[in-house]
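Shipment paperwork, digital attachment
Item: protein structure file
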Amino acid sequence: MTANGAKKGALTARYAAAGTLAATTLGLLYLSSKLDSFLLHPALMAAALWLCSEALVQVKVATLAQKKGVYRTHWALQTVSFAAFLGGVYVIFTLKEEWGESHFDTTHGQAGLAFIVLTEIQWVLGLSYLCMPRFIATYAIKLHRFVGVLALTSIYASFLTGVYDHMDNVPLQIVLSVLGSAAYLGLVVPL
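Attachment content:
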């Protein structure tokens, strides 16, 4: 297979993953109106995870000539990812208030909180790369990448501990299996 064919295949796999994720999310939104609004939480969080990961993949596979346009795509994907993440946090925060449960007392919640904090730091560092003098920007982008790895690690940790916490919920496990397959197609196959 040629390099161009491999890139097209990777792009097709990512779009297939995006389509699967979108269809699953829409299905969850429909089901949540019929079953339980809790399903909105993992749907939004999985969307945030996929978008966050896709933003990283976009920058990593871009050539030097493509970087400027890819940075805009990266920023847009990260912005939408963070909006989806905040939506998921809002859903679970509201539900925990209704249920009378405490917030951020599990590993899942603490990893999610770490993601929020790290993402805000990363956003400031990414912005400073664009706005600061070159000698400061060089250090800012290195920190941006490092904090980005920490943020991505925390969102994956939150995702996995959230799955582990709800192993008894069979419909949720089916949904997460589909989302996991979409993530595999979108992330692992292109790399």
